[in-house]
Amino acid sequence: MTLIRRNFITGAAVAGGVLGAPAIARAQTKTVLNWKMTSAYGKGSPFYMDGPGSATDLAKRIREMSDGRLNIQVFGAGELIPAFEGFDAVRAGTVEMNHANSYFWTGKTFAAQYFTAVPFGMNFQGMNGWLYDGGGIDLWNEVYAPFGMVAMPCGNTGVQMTGWFKKEINSVADFKGLKMRIPGLAGKVYANLGVDVKVLPGGEIFPALERGVIDAAEFVGPFQDRRLGLHKAAKYYYTTGWHESATVSELLINKAAWDKLPADLKAIVSNAAAACNVISEGWCQKANSEAMEDLIKNQKVIAKPLPDSVVKALRAETEKVLAEAVAKDPLTKKVHDSYFSFKAKFDRWSEVSEEAYHIKVRG
Predict the structure, then answer these.
(1) CB 179: neighbour CB atoms within 10 A?
(2) Partner residues linked to 163 by β-bridges
């Protein structure tokens, strides 16, 4: 071996040792963050807590993409806090994250409703268009800024069903005195039409419906509803889905904790949430199509849309409720105007794209 070659090899070995040591040291001393995430849904709940696009799937993606630098322990409803106390827990810094739906917080700020679903609003495609490219997420964070929190979409059920009723609905008069589990803005609309509205966690819906504590219930869609056994307590399944045409799951984050994350971990969380948003909706399409077929063919469920006169009354009442909310709060008006301005453009596009497909192409 020549002297030049021997010196090159020796020098390379030394350089490798010198340069490699800090890299190894950095790997051994990487900063690991351990966060807590609560949920409004029970442990093991499909879509929300288990399976593609769920809270546990989100935590897994973040852990893997961050190489273990950000580990999120997921708690189902009741494990660490009650189902509907995630907002306060994140705000106080008791936990860093909560996985739920923003319309649970309309008592804190009415504008939160728009980031889950608006009755007679946009579908999955339109909602994503508004959130990601129409300024929706920026408005979401503006709404939550006074509370010291940030948020982003992390799931979507697509179109939900109107729900389960023990008796047939033939007119608006049938709503008078009806006791129904229904959250969000739709609950206020129903209440104005005479419904006795109840807000119950998912696990409490079936026993309440079975025992007659409530006469009707809305949850999500065929797969989730069948899993709760709602078809065993009521046979009329109304499919109109007027109240939630695309229901967004919310990742709620304490802003002080968020601001401390390095840029790459923020990007990982944002991209993992966006992935779950799309993946969860895809899962719903498959699961619901199979479950709906079973409910009708094998479980003898009576599935049909609400009468046109009822839908018309629900639409008119929705417009009144929204108008009242907009008149009371400038921030709600700002969000409302943004949402419906985007919807008007999306509707015009949808007429020549999605609607044309369903009417002319699908067959």
Answers:
(1) 16
(2) 238
